[in-house]
Amino acid sequence: MTKKAEILATATHLLAMQGYSQMTMSTLARMTGVAHGTIFYHFNNKTELFLEILKEFKAEILREYQRHCNDSTPQTGLQQLEGAVAFYLHLSAQMADRFLLLHRHDAYELSQVNPDCRRHLEAIYDCFIGMFEQAIRAGQADGTLAAQPTAHKAALLVFTMVDGLVRFNTYNLYDAHSLQGDLITSIRRMLQPSAPSGGGQNRK
Global pTM? Predict the structure, then answer.
């Protein structure tokens, strides 16, 4: 691991545990065992460091999702959606620090005054919602998912359900993975296609 990568990994953990406002570059230097000058050689300030973490987070999401897609066999849209839900839950466990950082309020406070922070946060959420929307569009095309609501609205609803469960897990309230089956069942019911209408009855 390069020194820059080590600084980013340690900073991610500190930001997740302490929050943006509480983490200091002095603590980061002590935790990484490097001089302040080494940190400032790579990052001009804490904000630049934080934005780099968000940028790397998005890039890793895309890499991991591409790997997930490459490892998956062709399937129905419904199966793709179920796979995307499982992928999101797996990713939240694999990248626990970054999800905790993403779930802290600090990032959104900074985004109110820093357009670059807002742009990076939106890009991360667009990645997540895009995964679900892609699967839902495929399901609407092959008939395994309902045509309404629109794919984008359905993706937002699914993301809200999945991420809400992950937030419970993040704060040690519930085990998100133990409820995965129930979550999938709920999503199926919400997005199941309407049953074909039966033939009309003769009226007297």
Answer: 0.88
